[in-house]
Specification:
Layout: E1 2-3, E2 15-18, E3 21-24, E4 28-31, H1 32-35, E5 36-39, E6 49-50, E7 58-60, H2 62-67, E8 72-74, E9 82-83, E10 99-102, E11 104-105, E12 113-117, E13 125-127, E14 131-136, H3 144-149, H4 152-156, E15 168-169, H5 172-177, E16 179-182, H6 185-223, E17 237-241, H7 242-245, E18 246-250, E19 266-269, E20 282-283, E21 289-290, H8 292-297, E22 308-311, E23 323-325, E24 330-331, E25 335-340, H9 346-354, E26 362-363, E27 369-370, H10 372-376, E28 379-383, H11 386-424, E29 429-430
Parallel strand pairs: 7-13, 8-12, 19-24, 20-23
Antiparallel strand pairs: 1-29, 2-3, 4-16, 5-14, 6-9, 10-12, 10-14, 11-15, 17-28, 18-25, 19-21, 22-23, 22-25, 26-27
Length: 432
């Protein structure tokens, strides 16, 4: 491996300025319109597709490019819908190395690209509505384009060409005017191989995490229903409703004028804070804080430590995220808290609520919402013994901690891989 600079034993790389920034002098840079031809897509929507016929033409939908697939669509392993057999259309067939670009999105993910790989001689694959199909006119190493077109430098070059507000689009003309940097075919292959190895490590961890999650889900179902009892516990379980074992306390409005402070007596959590790294079980990382004076002005309900918080308004309800507060805090009016009675273990309450689909209690209105009166009535079957509650909670918490450790390791790999990708695709690091 060679790196920019004069370190002993390393090859010095000289750089040139391009529209994509500095790249090695020996690398090429050219516009998409000069490197690719555009194949014809079709205009088929989801209504024209199915997952049951399992014959005929496979179709790549732009929504799947945006959400489901990464830098590559592997036709040999990825699940694709089929075009309904009674539909007549005449698009171009895809080949290995073709690139599918989503030209429409609800946000700045527009322009997301996936390189097609794994097409066999028997496969008939087409691309649908709101996609562009780039067919390379010269030889590129397998996977190089998928990596490059999803790299930071290339996607940043798209921003000025994005159009729209609620729905954002990008035109063929704009895509054709963007540029791609690329080294020799052999260096492309080395870059793609190195990044594929990094992806394989992440995929291996993802598979292990999913296996652990499945085991934990089974264990939760057994332990939280009493189907499996822990040794040493034989006291009866009892039927209760949530309103009997704890209290629901609502959040408060959080005016913009009071937001944005990084320090203060109370963290003030919003629904989005449940996404923060480190908040998988306990709410630890907050984007906003307030002091006691502001808490008094807003007449905030102070949510004590070891309360369970979750979304009560909006689509976030359906994500079924529940977290424990780590310290006294405040929550906004899109969140709800559950504070369990002293005779009930809070850790057990967390796992109990995680086993319940509270979204089933959503009111049928334009804006999804939870009613506390409905939540209070949810029936639960629980150990009468506090010691048994704690023992069950301990087992599930240990399993959760193991998964969290694996996720942290996976996320670190992803971070390293992202940095590696940026360095390799700009020639800051060379593979020789």
């Amino acid at each position: 491996m060679a790196r920019d600079g004069n370190a002993k034993g390393m090859k010095e790389t000289k750089f040139k300025d391009t529209v994509l920034g500095k790249i090695p002098e020996e690398w090429s840079v050219a516009q998409v319109g000069d490197l690719f031809s555009m194949k014809r897509n079709n205009t088929l929507s989801r209504d024209n597709l199915n997952y049951s016929d399992l014959a005929g033409y496979k179709n790549i939908h732009y929504g799947d490019v945006l959400v489901k697939f990464g830098a590559f669509i592997d036709i040999s392993t990825d699940t694709l819908p089929f075009v309904n057999h009674d539909i007549k259309f005449n698009p171009d067939l895809l080949e290995n190395g073709d690139v599918i670009i989503a030209d429409t999105a609800e946000d700045e993910t527009v322009g997301k690209a996936s390189e097609v790989i794994g097409i066999s001689a028997k496969d008939k694959v087409v691309s649908g509505l709101h996609t562009m199909i780039l067919h390379p006119n010269e030889k590129f190493a397998s996977k190089y384009l998928g990596y490059f077109l999803n790299g930071e430098a290339y996607h940043n070059s798209l921003y000025n060409s994005m159009q729209g507000t609620k729905v954002i689009s990008i035109s063929k003309k704009a895509i054709n005017a963007t540029s791609i940097a690329y080294p020799s075919l052999s260096e492309q292959q080395r870059i793609a191989s190195a990044l594929s190895d990094a992806d394989a490590l992440v995929a291996e961890l993802d598979a292990l995490i999913e296996k652990k999650r499945a085991i934990m889900a089974g264990t939760m179902q057994e332990l939280l229903t009493g189907k499996r009892r822990l040794q040493g516990f034989d006291e009866p379980w009892v039927e209760r409703i949530l309103g009997q074992i704890g209290t629901f306390v609502a959040g408060n409005g959080f005016p913009l004028i009071h937001q944005g402070k990084s320090k203060g007596k109370y963290p003030f959590y919003k629904v989005s804070d449940m996404n923060n790294s480190g908040n998988q079980t306990y709410m630890i990382v907050a984007n906003n804080h307030i002091d006691q004076e502001v808490a008094n002005i807003l007449n905030c309900n102070i949510i004590p430590a070891n309360s369970i918080v979750f979304a009560k308004i909006g689509a976030a309800i359906f994500l079924e995220r529940k977290r424990l507060t780590s310290i006294d805090c405040c929550i906004d009016n899109n969140m709800q808290s559950f504070q369990c009675n002293k005779s009930f273990d809070c850790q057990y309450a967390l796992w109990l609520l995680r086993s319940i689909k509270i979204a089933d209690s959503v009111s049928q209105t334009a804006l999804p919402a939870l009613k506390v009166t409905d939540l209070k009535k949810i029936e639960v079957y629980i150990p009468s013994s506090l010691a048994e509650q704690r023992a069950i909670a301990s087992i599930l918490s240990d399993m959760d901690a193991e998964i969290a450790e694996l996720e942290a390791k996976r996320d670190k790999y992803k971070e390293v891989r992202q940095g590696m990708m940026q360095q390799l695709l700009t020639g800051k690091i060379r593979l020789i």
